[in-house]
Write a structure and sequence with these properties.
The protein is an alpha/beta fold. It is built from five helices and ten strands; from the N terminus they run βαβββαββαβββααβ. The longest helix is centred in the first third of the chain and has 30 residues.
């Protein structure tokens, strides 16, 4: 297998501060753009390899995405509120509610759309909430032929949510509620380490998840 970790968590040591020089900012922007371009190029190469790997009779190779799925709400505002301040939305605008998002869900949809049509070459592993947003997220993934058969639905927690502020200046800020994305993963880890016969995920189940997988994408958003 080829294991590829795609992380969206920037290293603090490389993030310029507000007091950084203009030259430092330009270098940082160049490196960020280069890393993003390389990530996109790598993703295209991996998808191309999965499309060409089906001629051996074993079916097409797959890309496994493990990560979060959020129902996003977009709020168009003039600016971000200050502490203790209430703001209304921009005149004539309305919030966009329950738009499928989250880095894991977004990557899975992108992989599925770039892959060969009518072939489930993308497998998603995540945890949906026990609410209507969980249904929306599952339907969005199924609509583009993402294999969600290994996903779980949390019994008590709602789905993860993102509240995104879109300002007139074009900046984007968000508040994230992890919800079902943040709970339940420890059981997977304990089950794999203890192997006491009552594990939540057996070795056979892991083999089924990884069957035919050529690459794994991780966002490092879930524990």
């Amino acid at each position: 297998w080829l294991f590829t970790v795609v992380s969206t968590r920037r290293l603090p040591a490389f993030i310029p501060s507000a007091n950084s020089s203009r030259g430092t900012m330009k270098v940082y922007q160049f490196v960020s753009s280069l890393c993003y371009s390389l990530s996109i190029a790598l993703l295209f190469c991996l998808i191309g390899s999965t499309q060409g790997a089906g001629g051996g009779g074993g079916g097409p190779k797959k890309i496994l995405v493990v990560g979060s799925a959020n129902a996003d709400t977009f709020l168009p505002v003039a600016r971000l509120p200050t502490e203790g301040e209430n703001l209304t939305l921009l005149p004539g605008t309305h919030p966009v509610v329950d738009l499928p998002g989250g880095k894991g869900c977004t990557q899975a949809v992108a992989v599925a759309k770039l892959a060969a049509p009518n072939e489930r070459t993308c497998v998603f592993v995540g945890q949906f909430g026990n609410d209507s947003a969980g249904t929306v997220l599952k339907e969005a993934l199924n609509e583009v032929e993402v294999d969600c058969s290994h996903c779980k639905t949390h019994k008590t927690l709602p789905s993860g949510r993102g509240y995104v502020f879109l300002t007139q200046s074009g900046s984007v800020s968000a508040v994230i509620s992890g919800g079902s994305n943040l709970d339940g993963w420890q059981h997977w880890k304990n089950a794999w380490e203890e192997k006491d016969g009552t594990e939540m995920v057996t070795e056979h189940e892991l083999e089924l998840i990884l069957d035919g997988v050529e690459c794994i994408l991780l966002q490092r958003e879930v524990p």
